[in-house]
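Here is an idea for our session: we take a single protein and study its fold together. Start from the sequence, derive the backbone structure tokens from it, and show both lines together. Once you have written the record down, we can walk along the chain together:
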Amino acid sequence: MSEIKVIPRFSQDRGNADHDWLRTFHTFSFAMYQDFDHAQYGSLRVINEDRVAARTGFGTHSHREFEIFSYVVDGELEHKDSMNNTEVLKRGDVQLTSAGTGISHSEKAHGNKEVHFLQIWSLPSVSRLPPKYFTRHFSDKEKEDSWVRVVAPVNAEGVQKDVREGSRQGEGPAPVQSPLTMYATLLSAGKSLSQAMKGPKGYVHVVMRSGYNEGLAHGATIKVAGQPLREGDGAYLQIPSSSDLVIENVGDRVAEIILFDLE
């Protein structure tokens, strides 16, 4: 069996900006950061790790033909959109907007502290779909030393793709219109996890829990198929068929890890 190939994407090589109200890192080309070598990977188009200052944020703006999801790490994120959804998202919440033919929304820090979240975009497999909105919650306890499937394709097993009207909260992963499955874990020091990957591509990201731009010298350290990664680092994965990915926490603290399986 061929081994999974790991191509590191180190934190210091990502696009980044400090706008005072927003401190952000871009894994892929975004806004003023453009790098043709890092434009997208499979259906994955954007991974922005954002810290938005209290009572500020992204004003109302429009999107179409993207699947847009937010993974809240710390603080509270206030969401409003043109579908009349208003919600305050907290740690453990995953919010997914299937923009389809077009939506407008705003995303702001709620309350008196900054919000730290991952903003992720993927390309839909089908165009001109009606816009939809979903939220899910996954507790720290669920993620402890275990992979939790937080986003999965609409036709995947266990996905409640019809929970759309009335209550936006359903059970299981949020349904995405892309061939993409997203997992999350809180991996304890000294522990390891294995995940069967469908492939042929994947991406892994270590969340910057220790602070903005601190991943180079501080924070959690993991190994992905033997490749060391610190907070803020990620890696492209090239996956042969029927492969298991092994991730080890070789540091001295819990690592929050996001993993994408890109079919």
User: Anything to note?
Assistant: The longest strand covers residues 44-52. The longest helix spans residues 140-143.
